[in-house]
Write a structure and sequence with these properties.
Elements lengths: L7 E5 L4 H12 L3 E6 L2 H14 L3 E5 L5 H15 L5 E4 L14 H29 L3 E6 L12 H21 L4 E6 L28 H11 L5 H13 L4 E2 L5 H14 L3 H22 L9 H4 L19
Parallel strand pairs: 1-2, 1-4, 2-3, 4-5, 5-6, 6-7
Bound molecules: nicotinamide-adenine-dinucleotide.
The site of nicotinamide-adenine-dinucleotide has 35 residues, from α1 and α4.
């Protein structure tokens, strides 16, 4: 897709971080935007920005895990803009990190409910409407590099993002006959408000096995300040959509990065490979420590803040050496 003028674009999580960046860039490209977000304060701030720009943007407060509310939001789009959207960006997401072995059912239900369930709800709500409108279109999900690998402290998040990658590939093939393109954006760090994700965690899912408190949230704000600028990321997404590229990975050499991922998977399949993988992992961790653990790097203060640790009463969880 190259022509965005006049297209209706529905963005979940569109009021903050990556989604707000997408709303800015695609609004400038001529789209009529809907930003859907669970946080009213984020929606108000974003709308103040767009009012100043006199941009065509409509805000809907929506929890993407609520299927009934999602259907009502889709009806609202048709009422406001006269048609279902031609474009859907499944961008809203949350994270909660800590040792996999400390994870609770509620950690899985919340993180996977938003990051994967929210995408499923977006697809089931909008895809039939988009097909029946007969205008083709484009769907992009904001996944994560975390979807290409499991991590000892990222289990629910990595599982959700891996599933999103796979899910979007299924839709890539299924929606081709309808003229609907599909992409999966896989960023590393983004300069966003995701440090505050736990503020939107519902009461009935508040039981976490991880150490999450004001200190870890303050540290995470610092950590994510090293990420890519959301507008720059949205420009990369736009270019990827113009090229109809499935994976859009904002690193200088995405092919080399993916070759490393494939090498890991291949290594896991034989006894010799498992040995090679141990060595590779050591090298990888060493490089990561150097890259991220420097005096002024994004991991500065991580261990002291208690980030990535288990809830303090889970004394059976082994202490890890350092943040990795
Ligand atoms: N921040 C990073 O380093 C990073 C890295 C890779 C991928 N991502 C992904 O990027 C996407 C955007 O995150 P961000 O970093 O811009 O964070 P952000 O917190 O700034 O923006 C996410 C928005 O989603 C909204 N949201 C959360 N739960 C919701 C729900 N149930 N229903 C509707 N809206 C909801 C939040 O209120 C927020 O406004 C997420 O899918 C995230 O997993 C983030």
């Amino acid at each position: 897709m190259k022509d965005f003028a006049g297209k209706i674009l529905f963005i979940t999580g569109g009021a903050s971080g990556a989604g707000f960046g997408q709303a800015k860039v695609f609004s400038e490209a001529g789209c009529k935007i809907v930003i859907a977000d669970i946080r009213k304060d984020h929606l108000d701030e974003a709308m103040a920005y767009f009012r100043d720009k006199k941009a065509e943007v409509h805000a809907i407060q929506l929890d993407i895990t609520d299927r009934k509310a999602y259907a009502e939001a889709a009806d609202e789009v048709e009422k406001v803009y006269g048609s279902p959207p031609q474009m859907l960006f499944n961008t809203a997401g949350v994270n909660a990190f800590g040792p996999a072995e400390a994870s609770t059912f509620e950690d899985y239900d919340w993180v996977m409910g938003v990051c994967l369930g929210g995408v499923v709800n977006g697809m089931v709500t909008f895809v039939p409407r988009m097909i029946q409108a007969g205008k083709g279109g484009y769907i992009a999900a904001t996944s994560s590099m975390g979807g290409f690998m499991g991590g000892s402290t990222t289990a629910p998040y990595s599982a959700a993002k891996a599933a999103v990658n796979n899910l979007m590939e299924s839709y890539l093939q299924a929606l081709k006959p309808y003229g609907i393109g599909v992409s999966c954006l896989c960023p590393g760090g983004i300069r966003s408000n995701i440090a505050e994700a736990s503020y939107t965690r519902p009461k009935h899912l508040e039981n976490t096995g991880y150490n999450i408190n004001e200190k870890t949230i303050e540290y995470m704000h610092y950590h994510y300040s090293f990420g890519i600028d959301p507008v720059e990321l949205a420009q990369i997404l736009k270019k990827g959509i113009e090229n109809e590229q499935f994976f859009i990975i904002p690193v200088p050499d995405p092919e080399k990065m993916l070759q490393g991922i494939v090498e890991r998977i291949v290594n896991y399949a034989t006894p010799e490979g498992m040995k090679r993988q141990v060595e590779l992992m050591k090298k990888h961790m060493e490089e990561m420590r150097k890259r991220m653990g420097g005096d002024d790097g994004p991991m500065k203060g991580a261990a002291e803040s208690g980030w990535l640790k288990a809830r303090q009463d889970l004394t059976w969880v082994k202490e890890r050496k350092g943040p990795f």
